[in-house]
Amino acid sequence: MSLICSSQRRGIHLDQSELLCKKGCGFYGNTAWQGLCSKCWREENQREKQKQIQEDWALAEKLQREEEEAYASRHQKAQSQPTITPFSKFEERKTKEKSSKVNTVTKFFIPSTKTPPKKGIVYIPSPSSSTSRQSCVDSDHATREFIDFLKPLKSGREIFKQCRAFTESMVYKRVSIERGSSDHVESVMDEVEKYMMTRLYKEVFCPETTDDEKKDLAIQKRIRALHWVTIEMLCVPVDEEIPEVSDSVVKAITDVIEMDSKRVPKDKLACITRCSKHIFNAIKVSKKEAASADDFLPTLIYIVLKANPPRLQSNIQYITRFCNPSRLMTGEDGYYFTNLCCAVAFIEKLDGQSLNLSSEEFELYMSGQASPHWTQASGASSCSPGSAALSQVHERLDMLTGLGERQERVMEKARQLESDLIDWTDEVEQKVQSVLESFPPETQNPTATTASGTSAAPSAIDSDNVENELLPPPLQPQVFAG
Which pLDDT does position 176 carry in this prediction? Predict the structure, then answer.
């Protein structure tokens, strides 16, 4: 994936050969399969497994030959020394135990001819014993791999029972394996996929044994940090001022978000396909001509950035692991899914050079210390229409940034004023306290005259006078009849 810049056009260009399998088979590749399609990936793995099986088989044959030679040598020595001692009995028992262990390893690769085959396993005679042994080894190896895969699953035992019942019915009941038409087979596979994946969704989607959740959080954080990326930076040929285009963009965002609510891989793929078709429609209406691949990928990146789909990496991995491989290798579903994987990879590696920005500008935008300012003049020379609306948006963003700075200054002054008020209050309290300490309160009169002319009771100041008891009682007013 590379960024092509020229005086007429600046945008993201993806060579279609990059979407195809690296083996050159013509099918679509996938980053999860190291750029191979599912067919080539399966063949590559099969070759590796076959090589490992052959090495294991050679080791088993070597151990068997060594044991046979050792046993023949011991047997020859035993015949030449017929005297039996307690030590020789011990050696014989030890030899038998060792032979039993080696035979156990050998039996792991070779079916026993002395015991009947276990239920559910049928050994088909072959002109070549080596071919029969190889078939048995492959069967055992596949069984072990299947059991290891099912162990972490809650319903793994039940799945194994059902699969074993199916194989037994095929072997003993001689069920016909005549295949129908390709459409019929595809329909059956779709229904089986729907049933199985709906039942197992909670167990196999974003399992704890993988790092899918970690990748989800990383891409979600990355997309949030790239919220400032504009249509003009990606050279997206979409004019959102046109109502039909705006509606298509909203539908595309809705579809890619809705992907997380589906359980069946086929349904998740359908969401990606619908999203992509809405993108093509938006481009077609904006340009008044058919969209090209160079128009589609930048617009898909823009839609993903605007939508920030939930659990994006988990959904991609789920589709890769459990979807019918033929859907990912060919057809429009495979094409759109491959482009989505490319869009996510581009977002993960996006830098200033990809957007024709300096590293300093890119870091400022990523940290939120600045926002891109696109004037209408620069927008008119870009490859995207709708520059007037974008300029208005950026002007409002700059206005909001200015308001934020003004609010920060007002808050700073408010905090300073609050601090000054606290200092002033403390200063006033100190002055009042100083005045009170410098001027003690004056002594009041021992008696006070009431409004009626009578004297009030002695004040508390006379309570310490020891001669109070010797004084005559106070005069009481008398009333004379006149």
Answer: 60
In the block, tokens 């005086």 appear at 7
Q: CB atoms < 10 A from the CB of 59, how many?
A: 12
Does an H or E element contain 12, and which? strand 10-13
Whether residue 109 is predicted with pLDDT greater than 70 in this model: the reply is: no
Number of helices (H) and strands (E) in the chain: give both, helices first. Answer: 16, 2
pLDDT exceeds cutoff 50 at 377:
no
pTM, two decimal places:
0.51
What Cα–Cα distance (Å) separates residue 445 from each residue in 317, 460, 464?
98, 10, 15
Q: How would you label 298-313 residue by residue, b for 16+ Cβ within 10 Å and e otherwise? A: bbbbbbbbbbbbebbb
Would 312 be classed as within a structural domain?
yes
In this structure, is the dihedral angle defined by the CA atoms of residues 85, 90, 94 and 99, taken in order, positive or negative? positive
* Range in 109-113, 191-195, 418-422 the model is least confident about: 109-113
Can you tell me the distance from the alpha carbon of 359 to that of 401, in angstroms, rounded to the nearest whole number? 22
Strand runs labelled E in 172-286: none
395 phi and psi, to 5 degrees? -65, -40
Buried b (16+ CB within 10 A) or exposed e, 216-250: beebbebbeebebbbbbbbbbbbbbeeeebeebbe
Rounded Cα–Cα distance for residues 135 and 164 (Å):
18
Band (pLDDT 50/70/90 cuts) for residue 144 is: confident
CA distance 453 to 307: 92
DSSP state of 4: E
Domain termination site, one of 367, 385, 403: 367
Q: Is residue 160 part of a domain?
A: no
From 349, 367, 385, the end of a domain falls on 367
Determine the structural domain holding residue 352 and report its residue range.
211-367
pLDDT at position 135: 66
Q: Give the C-alpha separation, 9 to 255, whole Å.
A: 29
